[in-house]
Amino acid sequence: DRHSTRRAQLVNYIYDFKNKYKSSPAACPSESELLDGWNKLQVALQWSNLYCADSVDLKLRSLGFGTTSPLRLTTEQIELMAEVEHNRWNMEKLLLGYRKPTPEEEEKCKDNAVRKEYKTKRFVHTDIRPYYQLEEGTKEYDRCISGCLPLIAEQ
């Protein structure tokens, strides 16, 4: 429905904002800005954003928030939800047929071109691993989307 799609568009916007500005947005952009980014996405990534958006209310309830979402989350809450989001993402990728790399593939995937080829042609993703094993830069994306849960919930 329109509500779920708007939330998913906002998830996409948050990721784009993080890529561009290295921080989280403070407010929701215009409808046209949401649509512009959304319409450039592959369908598989649109679905990924829909799955993420669908988990927002459940994540907030798990933190003890009912029908009223918080204005902000604490650092501890953000870190916990970042781990939850990464676990959700892991399951999404595994269900889509991706797998984690073998130790030999892991070594080869240190080269960006090889990593991209393995991801697109062999369905091997180097971020399929427990949260604590992720590089800090990757964790920042999970923290970013988790810190924006209240913003997404407002939609």
The biggest sheet amounts to: none
Model regions low in confidence, pLDDT < 50 over at least 5 residues: none
Task: Tally the beta strands.
Answer: 0
Helix content: 55-70%
* Rounded radius of gyration (Å): 16 Å
Distance between the termini: 13 Å
Query: What multimeric state do the chains show?
Result: single chain
Order of helices and strands: HHHHHHHHH
Provide a count of the helices: 9
Note the beta-strand portion: under 5%
Mean pLDDT: 94
Task: Describe the global form.
Answer: globular
Helix/strand structural class: mainly alpha
What does it look like?
With 155 residues, this protein is mostly helical. 66% of the residues lie in helices and 0% in strands. The chain contains nine helices and no strands. It has helices at residues 2-21, 31-39, 43-54, 56-62, 75-95, 103-108, 112-121, 136-147, 149-153. The two termini are 13 Å apart. The relative contact order is 0.17. The model has no long low-confidence stretch (mean pLDDT 94).
Topology:
Elements: H1 2-21, H2 31-39, H3 43-54, H4 56-62, H5 75-95, H6 103-108, H7 112-121, H8 136-147, H9 149-153
Helix pairs in contact: 1-2, 1-3, 5-8
Properties at a glance:
155 residues, mainly alpha, 9 helices
Concise account of the structure shown:
The chain is mainly α and 155 residues long. The protein has 9 helices and no strands. The chain starts with a helix and ends with a helix.
